[in-house]
């Protein structure tokens, strides 16, 4: 999920071919993006509102018709934040990719995770085609991605991990560094940074937590538990929003200090 500059909520559906909006102050959602023409079974994963470029970024997943075992193609899609008009479409390489989530870096580039193929892609400002940024075996299962104080962090939904991606003097990423979380985080999914912390939705343990990073350790503080498959989290001012896939709802809590 994402929050636009005017307070509009954008929520991608993992079971229908729609991205929905909820206007500020409203309690019901309305379809905003309709991808049903892409084929049966199409759905969305990550959603990001990039106010600087007036772009709504999404990951669109579409099953390959007749494929056995089941395969799907996934695409990075960009839409105008106000009108929903298409701006960019790029299909991830490979026979069975999983575009999952993204973040905008200090360099204004978009960084995209591919869960199935252990890759991070980078879309430079103004570019139409992303480039491969990092391919590493520890990234098989990569999901949430966020920059905290200029440093790139990613989580792994398969193996319940958190990694820091170091960058050398040449600007190239190095081997991901395992960050030890001092409490279990099962199924880390959507992840965002705010107020010097990472916020993560754990779909396996049904929790929203904050992660305070000190060196190679992350202190886990549970903010909300007892949820049914939370998948997305979004800080917005003094509010922390999150999605609960198991109930099809979006909730908010006051932003923790």
UniProtKB/TrEMBL annotation:
It comes from the Bacteria. InterPro entries: 6-blade_b-propeller_TolB-like, SMP-30/CGR1_Lactonase. This is SMP-30/Gluconolactonase/LRE-like region domain-containing protein.
